[in-house]
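In the laboratory, one determines a bound structure by crystallizing the protein with its ligand and collecting diffraction data. In a computational setting the workflow is compressed into a single prediction: the sequence and the ligand go in, and a structural description comes out. We illustrate the idea with uridine-5'-diphosphate.
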Amino acid sequence: MQPRYKRVLLKLSGEALAGDGKTNISPDVLNYMSAEIKRLLAHGVQVAIVLGGGNIWRGGPAIKAGMEPPQAHYMGMLATIINALALQDALERNGMQTRAMTAIKMDEVAESYIRRRAVRHMEKGRVVILAAGTGNPYFTTDSGAALRAAELDADVILMAKNRVDGVYSADPRTNPTATKFDHITYFDALTRGLTIMDSTALTFCMDNNLPIIVFSLDTPGNLERIVLGEQVGTLISN
Ligand code: UDP
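The predicted complex, in structure-token form:
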């Protein structure tokens, strides 16, 4: 069966890596994610991953507590590099070839991000892990995911969520009347103020016509079902 998507940008939040929250990075979660990602490679799908850092550090709360904003944001970007190394280790132990690339130079631990090299790695079947977001303070890794998806010509951004399986009209955890969308436009998502990704990232996706699928990684096989063209989660597009 031919996959619907040939090249995907998977966004994993930092929080997802923490699992039940007893540690910042759960080896069980890393193993589970690795197995899910491996199912994509079996179909010849090219995979780039952008990782968040919220399990270790986020700029926002530290800034509220008085820290200088750029300093706090750089710490967040460094947190994503720690996560990238952990995921790289798990993917490789699960038999995949990988390259970690960082938007902030750290030559001893990972390659610097160069767009054309990232493309070449994916063409060779390597999973490319993109760390340090955009490399710029004041942004988020959602913006990093949107930017890299555009640069790398990904067919779709796959936004993995925990405990929620798509985009709802309201928060389904607090509002029992909330209904799930199979599809929603960027404009609707923005004007309804739905918390899917931050508005800078969502606007970027809208301007560059980058489809997003919001889905739950908690259900085994979901990632594979999406690339094979099944209706899973919520599609955001024009
Ligand atoms: N960050 C940044 N620029 C970027 C990406 C991230 O300054 O391009 C900082 C920002 O402070 C953010 C933190 O890194 O709070 C962690 O990233 P994020 O909150 O996106 O992680 P997630 O919520 O996906 O775990």
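Residues 69-93 form the longest helix (25 residues). Keep in mind that any predicted model is a hypothesis to be tested, not a measurement.
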